[in-house]
Every structure is written in C-alpha cells, then in structure tokens.
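Record type: monomer structure entry
Structure origin: computed from sequence
Chain ID: A
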Amino acid sequence: VDKKELPELAQQYGTIMPWRYGAKVGETKLFVYRITMNNEDGIVTELSWPQVKKRCGQLNLQHVPEIAGPHLWHKELQVDKGKNGEPLAKRHFEWLATGASLLDPTHIREGVAIRIETPDGRIYCLKEKSYEFKVLEGIIKSDASYVDTEETS
C-alpha cells in the first residue's frame, strides 16, 4: 500500500496487503454470484438468488457472502436519467464495496456484486469495485487532478 496515496490503508494494513480472500497460502477459492443456463436454442435463463444458493450447495461451491438485502424493487431503481443511464442501485450501494473484506480481515474489500431481481423476473447483476481497490490495482489514481481518458473520450 502506497503511504502517499492511501495513508490510512497503509497504517491499518501495512505496506504489503496480500489478497487471500480467506484462503490459505497456495490455495484458491471461487465465490459464485451468478449462474445462467443456455438451452439448445440459445435462450439464456438466469437462476434466482435462492436457486443460485441451492445449486452452490449441490455442487459444493461457495456463493458470495450476503451483506445486505433483499431489498424491495421499486421503479426508481430501474433507470436513472443521469450519467450514462446508470441504475440508481449501483450508486446507492457503492458504500457496500468499501471496508475490510468480509472473507479475510487482513485486506480491504475488493468490491461488491449487486443483484437486482424485478417483479417481472428480470435480473440485473452489477459489480462495483471499491475506490481503494481501484487505486491499489492501478485502475485509477487518488490524485484529484488525475483525468481518466476513458471518461473524457
């Protein structure tokens, strides 16, 4: 962790922060947040969250930890007329992406997967990486004067 860019993280976690996600050294883990099925006609069916959890149990897989919800769907979550038509749910739950990892308190949370299931059966899966993770991975700079060329083009 760069002491200049994220001094509070360097103080809390040290200058080296291995991403373990609760796994032992040399071990890896998989966490499922979404399962789809494609039939022979190419039609994709998305499993509901209870179905995902049940299937994970059947396959002896771990699903992502649940940190909030379920939340009741309301029309305002569907589409925001603001920036890029981004669903409001993504902005409302960005705070869930921050803090210590729920899988391993020795490192920060990478991000969050947000699942929205509408009353008519549509399912949206949004992923949001934490600001700190983006800085540490070099995805963005914490410098306020930094310009993201993807956003300006």
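Annotation 1: The longest helix spans residues 49-58.
Annotation 2: The first strand starts at residue 31 and ends at 32.
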